[in-house]
Amino acid sequence: MNTPDITIPSDLLPADGRFGSGPTKVRPEALAALAEIGANYMGTSHRQLPVQMVVAELRNGLAELLRAPDGYEIILGNGGSTGFWDCATFGLIDNRSHHLSFGEFGSKFAKAVKAAPHLADPSVVDSEMGTHPELASVEGVDAVCYTHNETSTGVMLDPARVGDAGELMMVDATSGAGGLLFDPSATDVYYFAPQKALASDGGLWIAMMSPAAIERVEKISADGRWIPPSLDLKTAVDNSRKDQTYNTPALSTVFLTAQTVNWFNDNGGLSWSAGRSAKSADILYGWAEASPVASPFVEIESQRSKVVATIDFDESVSADTICDVLRANGIVDTNGYRKLGRNQLRIGMFPAIDPDDTLALTHCLDHVVAALG
Q1: What is the CATH number of the domain that holds 178?
Q2: Do 142 and 228 lie in a common domain?
């Protein structure tokens, strides 16, 4: 199907048209800083001081941003959040875990754990897409696993601590870290990748780990469980304490992430960065609720993500066509999540996305819908 020839007036367009849910907008200021330092930083050893200083800057900045409680450590490794699921399957779950599955990413972690021959079958609670299950204690598990923000559906779940038998609270914060307020003491492992709310590139996983989580890593390692070296969390902990990673990381990703974290902290920390996302969320959901052809996919307001909005459209309007028209006008990556199969747009509202651009996007949507109608 050909894209309709609709031109959005230039005075309606956002200053930056990147609204992806990951990878997402990288700030031009961070790219300029990378270009300035590139010749002395890129292409150098990750075990030497110039790179170790940037890793230290990133680790210290994240501890400040996430308000790490005493004893919590920032651990880094290669491979992204998907890789961290494998690390956790080997090095954090002792025997049996409990999972909340309310989107693509939480369900994938549960499936990875279920396939592990050295672990008991996990406990898994599902809910309808667009909702999340209740977070509750489960007898006989040593880890409770769920997502802070489900990128595929636009549902968020505030971290909380449940159980009283030493269960580790393992929170997948891939699209939430830096964009959502939370209680860090309610988590033992708050892990994420930097290509979403932290406005960087991919290829790295980062985890804020409690003393209990570090102790679990060391216990499993001491027990002699076979773990592939590249997935060994004990190795990741040991290297992170030296401000390096086991294998060579993507140095640009490390640098760009540190730039974003510094930007957040310099402007007020997590309250400031999460506040930018919350403002965009108010704008976009307010627009959808007032629109005659659109509505928020997540019906329960308290469960609506403040960093990734999923917006349904009436069947009289094709969301795919809207997306194509937007892309032709320089507004990109608003596609709905393919596996949901809904007439829907999915729009990133991460802190690096200016709320004024989110407002401009709503004006563009009104223009396109009117032109299609």
Answers
A1: 3.40.640.10
A2: yes
